[in-house]
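Technical note accompanying the year-one report. For the benefit of new consortium partners, we illustrate the data format agreed upon in the data management plan: each record pairs a sequence with a structure-token string. No post-processing was applied to the example shown here.
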Amino acid sequence: MNALNTDSTSTPTSTRKRKAITLEEKLEVVKRYERSEKTKEIRYATGLSESTLCTIMDNVEKIRESSNSATRLSMACVSLTRLAIMEKMEHKLTTWTEHQNQEHMPLLTQVIQAKARGIYEVLKCDDPEAKPFNASARWFDRFKAHHGFHNLKLAGEAAAADKSAANKFPSILQAAIEEEKKL
């Protein structure tokens, strides 16, 4: 028999489970690196793998941003940090949309998306490192959900509803005429 047995049945496979690391733990790792502790010492103290430590160090800026924002340190998962420019743009767009809605102005999805792009371009002048923004349909759906626009009346949707009602109306009218003839 061969000394190096590569049969998968004889050697147990060890798979690691994913472990959520809190923001506090990540900040502790960053502080240890800043104190010039060696990776081996940090691994021993925290029980984290070397690749996890490298990933934390690659994302130091994001971790610091999350800790400076209102994120709780005990959070194990910071799903997505929103850019400040996006927050400002969406706040201004929300204000504009609510005003348009209060004035009973017809809103089209394309108009709202164009307004979002316009506001973003104005704000982008203050932040030259801002990424391009195209106000996609997917972004618009998330924007509506995030800002609670569940009952936002869009002119395109209202027109579609009117067409379906208009299609039903002739049949109802025809039934009423037939009923009248019977009397």
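Partners are asked to follow this layout when depositing records. Residues 1-11, 158-166 have pLDDT under 50 and may be disordered.
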